[in-house]
Amino acid sequence: MEKTLKDLFVDEIKDLYNAEKQLTKALPQMAKKVTSEKLKVAFEKHLKETENQITRLEQVFKELDLTPKGKKCEAMEGLIKEGKGLMEEIDKSDTLDAALIAAAQKVEHYEIASYGTVRTYAEQLNFSKSADLLQETLEEESASNENLTELAMKINIEAAGGVEK
Fold it and tell me: Which of 5, 16, 20, 26 is the most exposed place for a label (fewest CB within 10 A)?
């Protein structure tokens, strides 16, 4: 079966829809485990953003005249599994906070790559409303990643025992 760019676009939107749904379950678990109040707030803020991103994806489905539904996102499932493994393996709070920032940034980088791709597909397919919605989400994902980088600078030093190396 030959796939068109539109077929690929729809598949990727379904994948992202499922990825975001998985993330809404994982973020509260991560927020409970961290000791940094700023990191907890960042995870809680990202949960609200993720819920809004799901709504935007539903609007993209509407522009495509499709019912919103996901296709299992194996990548997100793996990233979340990796994060859960860290929560089970690491007891030291500062170290766990540092590890969860790294896990969250892996998620952000996956989302940045995915949203950048589908935004471009939407532009090329002349789905301008979808392209705008996807660009908005891409900007949020980039901002979340930058925020995590800033938090990591402080938390990683604490995890290293307070000594800058």
Answer: 5
